[in-house]
Design brief:
78 residues, 434 Repressor (Amino-terminal Domain), 5 helices
Length: 78
């Protein structure tokens, strides 16, 4: 995994999923995005499109902006 935007988003996505104790398959089912795509996002191989980011955030009970802010290190802890 690299340190670019895709890697940062992927790391935050993985952390958010882990905090909710969801598998990639469970998140895929909740979000309507394939487990393979989620795996690629988490590995930093692909960046989710805006619609996918929103679907993932909704499935994780987050906002898309909170995922992006956390990935950029600008989130305010809850």
């Amino acid at each position: 995994m690299e340190n670019g935007p895709a890697a940062q988003i992927g790391a935050e996505l993985r952390a958010a999923r882990a905090r909710r104790r969801l598998t990639q398959r469970a998140l895929a089912k909740k979000s309507g995005i394939s487990a393979q795509s989620i795996q690629r996002f988490e590995q930093g191989l692909r960046e989710p499109r805006v619609g996918q980011l929103i679907s993932l955030a909704n499935a994780l009970d987050l906002t898309a902006s909170s995922l992006l802010d956390s990935a950029q290190g600008t989130a305010v802890p809850a």
